[in-house]
Amino acid sequence: xxxxVAVLAVEGVAPFELxxxxxxxxxxRSDQGMPTMEFALCGTRPGPVTTSVGFDIVVxxxxxxxxxxxLIGIPAMPRLQVIEGREPFTEPLLSALRASVDRGARxxxxxxxxxxxxxxxxxxxxxxxxxxxxxxxxxxAYPAAKVDPDVLYVEDGPVITSAxxxxxxxxxxxxxxxxxxxxxxxxIARRMVVPPHRDGxxxxxxxxxxxxxxxxxxxxxxxxxEAHLDEELTIExxxxxxxxxxxxxxxxxxxxxxxxxxxxxxxxxxxxAQRMLEQGDLTVDAIASxxxxxxxxxxxxxxxxxxxxxxxxxxxxxxxxxx
Length: 323
Prior knowledge:
Blueprint: E1 4-8, H1 15-25, E2 38-42, E3 47-50, E4 56-59, E5 71-74, H2 80-83, H3 91-102, E6 106-110, H4 114-119, E7 127-128, H5 135-141, E8 146-147, E9 153-156, E10 159-162, H6 165-180, H7 182-192, H8 219-227, H9 235-241, H10 246-257, H11 261-279, H12 284-290, H13 296-307, H14 311-319
Parallel strand pairs: 1-2, 1-5, 5-6, 6-10, 7-8
Antiparallel strand pairs: 3-4, 9-10
């Protein structure tokens, strides 16, 4: 169980990504009945640290603070020195990270924080990710890492790596959800004014995003689809609601959402099934019927394809901590 969080802040740390960790784990939400974490920033030594945008922050703790952490957060850090063949991360820092993982701590990087884990050898043989702009650089710098540039974030053993800023928020909420249950993650997300998780998915129960969109002309149709997931929603039916021809509707839908109507609908149905598995006791067949899959076999197929697990395993992972 994660009770104690330490976040690294070294020279060149990105303040926004650092703030992601502070917001996710550093705030006291006990007035809302939320669990609290022991939280601290640490550096290679106590004192001022210059951020990537030029202002200084002062950290109170050195690397010894990592010794008591259950989770170590690593915000975006300098990476150009790595690509240029210069190592910006000190050996005491890298040794402290390795020792922490060896004793059972977990590590979570945001964006180019993955380069710190790579320098420590913690990505060797592990699936990992970073911001898509830097994924090729990460793979070249640490060829033993299994870099996946297409995921929002990924967990491999004690190491969790995430892409850009918003993906770091999603990864933090994933940990809240994993450690304290779906309802706690939902409440924290509401406080942060962000979605509790994003649609689509891959293995390790981690959600990947459908591209964000304002859906300027189709917002009402999306709302209608969301409210009628259990029904047969054909292109013809949806196009009629939008007062368009089926061909025009399909073209406009993809332009505004980045996916096909079927792809969007499938993502929403899987997400609805996840919520029902987390919060209720309906059978898989009943959930399949309520979310438009029709049969339990169809729901199991989509769970396996999108999430790399079964509905039963998903329920076991995300229900037992709520009980």
